[in-house]
């Protein structure tokens, strides 16, 4: 229920003894169009993780956020900083190794950046195999991926600096949104039935500038605090429910 | 149109000069329940890749398959062999580096094993950044992921040794299927709204034995050559269409 | 002058064009005795970096902090999380590689944790050799290492959770200090002329519990906001003066 | 006696319980002059491994082949694909780690490509030290290296796309040989008493184009199915005898 | 008391059974101005290590020296050879792993090159964590760093090819010093209060040519055998005293 | 003609400008039976390299030796120290990278330890591909491998601590040989037609204790200075001839 960071080691000893799960927020420092802070992904992840931790009471501890992620596809836009995949894999492994040394063998990564998904999933698998630690990955675009299409307009891409992410930002930390810089849809390349969802899906990494001229998707002007609250609440309901099950369900114990 | 393997270097020089894209089949050697060969994933990938290559004529070359993938979650079942993630990342990088040396800068990975998806996506991103080579990832479970639910029954998991994969096997190589060993649904853990699709989605790696007692999903007895043909044809239609676009679309050139 | 995190990419483009140096705060999540937060090192580094960035106006940008460092010697105390050396080396390299892509080739690492010094120095050397980027390392215990002995009492170790670091904490962020938990000197192993300074110096890594029974050094009760302000001001005066020289002195350009 | 690939996991469980040794064929995808397929090395290795496995009955299992090897010296000829050494080392280690998990601690690598020898030997040593698994390396050029000189003509190099390897190809898979493209000896650099055998031996890696203008050695026209059969039979006799001894001899158990 | 190198394995078995600590000399092959051999650092380290080993009698064994270190900042001067940091880290780890296999769990690295300090300290920490082996680092510039300033003249840098190191060379091995090439102070960049000691200290790696035009510091003409003897004796007194304490003090046992 | 180590940087600049090739001696610290020093391999390599360098006059420079090699198979005998393969690969790469920075692109590794052969060959290949540096590997057991069988007795293994290596030691440095400890043939496992030469050859790494109870092969009592001189002279004649050709032959230039 409390961020590990704000505890002394004496307090941490108690908190860790009571806790069953650790939460690690990860995100990115990357361009989010003309109207959102570079910190948007990590700010949203940090706030979602904080609320999740709060909801779980003594059953969880909250680890410090990692503000850097895998954003090589955004390097064409100023201000983007990226790790290499092996670095993020090692970071997650090292932190889980430390958590195991602290008696915690269940970890929830709350991820604010879709670009971290591949590496987090991969890290989780190897951590499970090698360290006896079970790592779950929660990304809002995925956990509430059935709810966001209600806000889609045809012909647009979503889930990066669009009205949906901007709404989440308004709910999580309104200072993320530069409302005076909100603009309508950027010039975007036409949707592609293969590399854009929905429809058939092909993975093809591309520089983000090929998807949007200004780095934003959708129509960010359509963002609202109400949408943000709706989606964040839905994320949290599910995240809490999942984590409670993760804690309690014998079938979700780390592999022997 | 021809497997690189069956060419001499003299023939390869011509084929490479004409080709715009290389196709690499990857899969796994892993348990597929009591009725499918351990080679099922790589056999399906190899056949899908062969047909794709054939459809593309001189525009493509076909590389040899990699029969080993990331299958650590199946190690509890006999016969499973797995690579570590870093090995698969390195393999894909090395082959792409070689292809670039041969003048090919567009690659399609035809992947028969969902467990390879994370690493292939990650490899593609770093290969794009470092080697000036653009790598697309095609996995049947994803490219025709909108078509397979038509065959789902409630309460089951799918896409591994189920009627769908078994049908694909019947179409791609009937010898993969031990029809005398076809059994009804295995004892499976109940579906979980979080870690099973559809619905909210959480990534949580688990030993496959927690999902199915015999290593198979669904009800493999419901497989048929007809379903296999329908799905394989759909996969190929899309794979060909995507690859043609990949070859021709200036917006899909490797990043500078 | 502004944290990169709180800029949009459009603003970042301007800020990066004007800036000559990037500042990266690094620290640790590690035990700091019974009276200081686990976040003490990164909190101090973040605040020192913020003030340094502010003093430099448009000449600098401030990168997000890294809250994890090399703290394996503190793993015996609850709440400590540690990276492995190769991970921190990779992190610094990746961020500098990104900064170079953003046009920045001079970096100041403001480090709040002495345990990160080895790796940061080593990273700086290889980054200089390979990436054409010059990395300076500022650690308060070192930059004002001539001023802190004025507060030493004989027979004690210093610079971790002692009155000096506690004073810095009071100046940087008073909420770091749990004043009700302030206690007198812990039971400590006697000073050793070889592995403790001053005097001859041998490097011998040891579990921190061998140096202090409760994880703190010195007599934290002697900490005061005044000492904190004196030391922080001295650090900043020097850090600003150094960084201005780093920016302007042709002899400090990155090696060709 | 059966390829692991063609078993179900249920069958594999039985086969593994009975088997004492696993066989892994490795080779390359590399130029073999104007008359042999790029797959020649892996095709020969796969066939030799298949026959070896068959001869051993229930005492062995056969793993899938790896069609990629270390062929950087052939990159000057079209169609060559190469791994980097660390990748092949990791591949062998991962597969052996998996085999150990399946209860197999003796492995025979049947290698069709001399260029893989260094790495396979090195991998075998570290696998022995770290994993409790004993790895033997069989390469035809070495195992029957006393028999092939009977077919040598003075002034030629051998063992790559020459009459000897071409004869092996005719025996193992005649479709490897493009008989219409068989030509006499290529222009080759004069033999060198130091870097060519027999005689004193110096290791000096060189692009293969320095040894042969067309990528082939010897005089491939002199190849015959009879020579192929003689040599393959000799290889198999010895390979079977060795492997039986490897299985039975207590002195060849994996190191403790 | 005897170099391991000059023992047979039979003798080594006895020596190792009696010894409590191993000594490893490390140094560099790097420029030392116009008057000192490139081997100066490793030659001094080897001689200091030899004397230390001799003083310890049967309590120590002496390992072979490593003549290569981290000298990338000297690459601008001819004859410098450098390792990369990861290589030195791996070297130290491998040797300690071997020593542990020989029953030795305490190691003293006698280092003649300041540029190796970062990596040796870092290696020592990870070796302690992972291998149950305790590694101490002795560098003369540090162990007798309180004695050398007595020989400093204002306005000069010291500790590389200066009168101090030249004096050590005269004591350790006079053939290191090309007395006919001894020259007065080189043209040096002015001392910098930040990156030169004493005073505030910032770490900023720079090509050595920025510090001295001829690669030497101080005024090597002021070197003398007497200074060398004084300093070497002081180093040895402390090194012996430390190592005896290292051997005997239960508080310096390797971490469990 | 002179060891780089004994030059100043000024002298090294001249020597490097005149030289065409660098020589690096590598060996091992490993058991050599009851009568030879642990340093035997590196001592022989160093002396052979010294003589080769001397014969080449100004055309060569001599680098410092590496006394550690790959000796994991000897770890069962006291005093053996071993590197891991990746460490030796990295060492050779780093030194060659440094030599290229010094203008040298041809390197001769004089190797005194057969166990280093795999890794040195592999390193040479990747260094050639990546660094534009051509690396030749000379090992006495190989370069004069046609001459040593004249001294073989049936039923024995050779080339490690046998009469041949002991003879080389007597010629290179008689202090290597503990003549009072010379004994007759150790109890050895019977020769094996597969894993012992001559005859068919299989690579099977085994603990050396399986080959010889006391760590020595052959009958070391039969060693003589005369045999040593004969073999060393032969080695040198060939090594000089090869290196001259390596220097002069355009066909042996580093690959472009």
What does this structure look like?
The structure is a homohexamer of 256-residue chains. Chain A is built from seven helices and four strands, in the order H-E-H-E-H-E-H-E-H-H-H. Chain A has one domain: Creatininase (Rossmann fold, 3-Layer(aba) Sandwich). In chain A, strand 1, helix 2 and strand 2 form a beta-alpha-beta unit. In chain A, helix 2 packs across helix 7 and helix 6 crosses helix 7. The two termini of chain A are 28 Å apart. Chain A has 256 residues and is of the alpha/beta class. A four-stranded parallel beta sheet of chain A has the order 2-1-3-4, with helices on both faces. The mean pLDDT of chain A is 95. At the E-F interface, helix 1 and helix 3 of E face helix 1 and helix 3 of F.
Overview in brief:
Six copies of one chain form a homohexamer. Chain A has seven helices and four strands; from the N terminus they run H-E-H-E-H-E-H-E-H-H-H. By secondary structure, the first copy, chain A, is α/β, with parallel strands linked by helices.
Topology summary:
The structure is a homohexamer of 256-residue chains.
Chain A (H helix, E strand, L loop, with lengths): L8 H10 L2 E6 L13 H16 L4 E3 L22 H17 L4 E6 L5 H15 L2 E6 H4 L19 H10 L52 H24 L8
Parallel strand pairs in A: 1-2, 1-3, 3-4
Keywords summarizing the entry:
homohexamer; 256 residues; Rossmann fold; four-stranded parallel β-sheet; 4 strands; 8% strand; globular; hydrolase (chains A, B, C, D, E, F); Creatininase-like_sf (chains A, B, C, D, E, F); Creatininase/forma_Hydrolase (chains A, B, C, D, E, F); zinc (chains A, B, C, D, E, F); metal-binding (chains A, B, C, D, E, F)
């Amino acid at each position: 229920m409390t961020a590990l960071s704000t505890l002394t080691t004496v307090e941490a000893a108690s908190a860790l003894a009571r806790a069953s799960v650790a939460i690690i927020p990860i995100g990115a420092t990357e361009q989010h169009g003309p109207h959102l802070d570079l910190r948007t992904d990590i700010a949203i992840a940090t706030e979602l993780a904080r609320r999740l931790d709060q909801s779980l009471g003594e059953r969880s501890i909250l680890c410090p956020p990692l503000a850097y992620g895998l954003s090589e596809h955004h390097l064409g836009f100023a201000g983007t900083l990226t790790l290499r995949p092996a670095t993020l894999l090692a970071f997650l492994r090292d932190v889980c190794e430390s958590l195991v040394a602290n008696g915690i063998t269940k970890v929830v990564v709350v991820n604010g950046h879709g670009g971290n998904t591949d590496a987090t999933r991969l890290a989780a698998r190897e951590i499970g195999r090698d360290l006896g630690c079970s790592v779950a990955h929660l990304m809002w675009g995925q956990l509430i991926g059935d709810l966001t299409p209600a806000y889609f307009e045809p012909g647009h891409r979503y889930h990066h600096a669009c009205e949906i992410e901007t709404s989440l930002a308004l709910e999580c930390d309104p200072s993320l949104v530069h409302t005076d810089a909100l603009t309508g849809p950027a010039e975007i390349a036409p949707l592609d039935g293969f590399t854009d969802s929905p429809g058939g899906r092909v993975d093809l990494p591309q520089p983000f500038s090929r998807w949007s001229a200004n780095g934003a998707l959708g129509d960010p002007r359509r963002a609202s605090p109400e949408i943000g609250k709706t989606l964040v609440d839905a994320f949290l309901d599910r995240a809490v429910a999942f984590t409670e099950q993760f804690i309690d369900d014998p079938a979700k114990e780390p592999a022997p």
